[in-house]
Amino acid sequence: MTEITDKIIAQNKVEQFVSRFEDSYFLLASHVALPLVLTPELVNYLRIEFLKSEKVPWISEADLLLSNLCRPVGYELYVMDEGVRIYLLQKLAENPKFGQKRIKEIARLLLSYIKYLAKTNHFIGDKELQLQTWGAMLYLDTEKTVKEIAFAISQCIDKAELARLLKITQDFKQQIASSGQFQDFLDYAQLCNELLREPEKVTLEKITHSYQVAKLELTIPKIVLSKELDLGELFYFEVVKVDNFGNIIERSQESARQKIEYLGNEIKLEMVYIPGGTFTMGSPKSEVDSRDNERPQHQVTVPSFFMGKYPVTQGQWKAIASRTELKVERDLDPEPSYFKEPYESIDRWQRPVELVSWNQAVEFCQRLSKLTGRKYRLPSEAEWEYACRAGTSTPFYFGETITSELANYDGNHTYGKGPKGENREQTTPVGKFPPNAFGLYDMHGNVDEWCADDWYDNYVGAPTDGSARINSNKNSNTNSTKVFRGGSWIYYPWWCRSALRGNFNSDEADSISFGFRLVSFPPRTFE
Questions:
Q1: Residue 474: its pLDDT value, please?
Q2: Spatial separation of the C-alpha atoms in residues 272 and 280, rounded to whole Å
Q3: Distance (Å, rounded) from C-alpha 294 to C-alpha 310?
Q4: Buried b (16+ CB within 10 A) or exposed e, 88-107
Q5: Into which CATH architecture does domain 1-140 fall?
Q6: pTM across the whole model
Q7: CATH number of 233-520
Q8: At residue 196, does pLDDT exceed 80?
Q9: Is 58 helix (H, G, I), strand (E, B) or coil?
Q10: Average pLDDT over the chain, rounded to an integer
Q11: For residues 511 and 516, what is the distance between their CA atoms, to the nearest angstrom?
Q12: Contact, 250 vs 240, CB < 8 A?
């Protein structure tokens, strides 16, 4: 039914009611339309307070409550038809004698009355009083009211209560929308309603969209999210941008979602949600120190996925590698890394694992999948570069150059117009440097990261759907040479670019720069 039809029906109801009595009844009806729940006492209070000079008869109070404009909902409790409420409030606002000023006066009086009811009327519960308060406050401080309702929805742990809050939002929708400031909240409420009633219609885009009210980030109530649908908790971080000389020229606060997998002994794995999208993979010839194997540049569309917030740490590796009962194909050394000492005041277990072959990394993924029941694997080249760039097209996710204040590499060498810096000559604990806009750390430097792809000398014929490029010729030795990305602590800065590709034998585990990070996937449908 359209809003126009609703308005016509409400108008007809009101006109029929007034025609049965007298015109002054219209004034009473419009003055009692703001409260969501009416009592005979409240109607009398409003008539005496605002309409004494309008000669509205006292009998009009009973005539109104017993008319078809209202219906009883409890002992001496009545609610007015919602369409009628909206119509009457609109007419009161348009009345040159009363207008918005009168509506605010009614709202303030109603707040006083609610406080009185809370002390004297034991037939009205806390939820009804809260509802009345919101109904009045909506006309006095819309932002505060919307923020309170939004917070109540986000914290809801009961589906019946959530349905009640969403019904309240629907009842308040016209007044909320009239301010023109809270469309995000209305969209959020609509999403929660769909998840509650028709989850199969909900798209991943809606789930991952950021909803805010007055800088309050709204989260979807877990009661309507299955474990598979839950894309994790919000976390916040600072992203930096540098000029061509490596000076930080911009800082911005960003947020992302992460799911946490607990591996035992207080070891946790943080997986960040990466929204799907299309990007240009590879580097242009104009990029400093770029190579032919990074071309031709091409468009790739990558579905959404989760990626490790950090490279796999020594602690995470040991937690899985030591679980021999999870073995799939090969044994794993629980402590393979060369760097076994603390870094400054941080223990070794926060360093990225290294001295890991591609085959060993795959075994780790298989064991983790077996343990958790969720599919983990190495990222494809396309997924890795898409995640690294995080919407940028520059050589590094923070700009045109790199500095040793932003990543761990051989700082004795420079890139572009950037400065020389520190050569740490070792890995650093993960998370030491600023992340990219997706919330991923250490994508440039620290350790090289294995990808799922077989090595090819260029991108001719490369997939455009984000999948790994695998050699289908099983008799070829090419498939034993795998791709790695990201550069490491041991390399020059140009080797740490977003587009840089390297290759190494899949069974070799003798490089103190090789590590990896994980990917997993959200559901594709919501059933």
A1: 52
A2: 22
A3: 24
A4: bbbbbbeeeebeeebbeebb
A5: Orthogonal Bundle (1.10)
A6: 0.67
A7: 3.90.1580.10
A8: yes
A9: coil
A10: 92
A11: 13
A12: yes
